[in-house]
Model the fold of this input.
Amino acid sequence: KKCYCVSGGNSPDLDECDDGTTTNDPSCSDEFYPGWLCNEEENLIGEIEGISDPSDCQAICQNHDDCEFFNYYVEGHDKGFCQLHSSCSNFVEHEWCREHEGEHQCFAGPKYPDLDDCSYPELF
Done:
């Protein structure tokens, strides 16, 4: 099941929210920028350290009212950084964002569609 958190509690366990598969559906892959970052410091809402992958960063963005775009990047072999942006119209490719061991060191994208299944939230 897909979970949409409204506030942070200790439940549900985020590891149990979906089946762990990523479809990489080509219908939404052109919405994202692997190897690029949003380059608008004035629209930066915040930065979170220790995030494991772009999907987790996007989930944080999805649960922040002011966030519309996110950056995810890794420095060295540590867990990554997640930056939340209120808007973004300027994406840049940084030299240090190049692929390392088959993985992009940088990744940018919008709040939706969801990276894991290309879905949008249901409107009630």
Notes: The longest helix spans residues 54-62. Residues 13 and 121 are 20 Å apart (CA to CA). The beta strands are 33-34, 37-38, 44-51, 69-73, 80-85, 91-92, 99-100, 103-104, 106-110. The chain has one helix and nine strands.
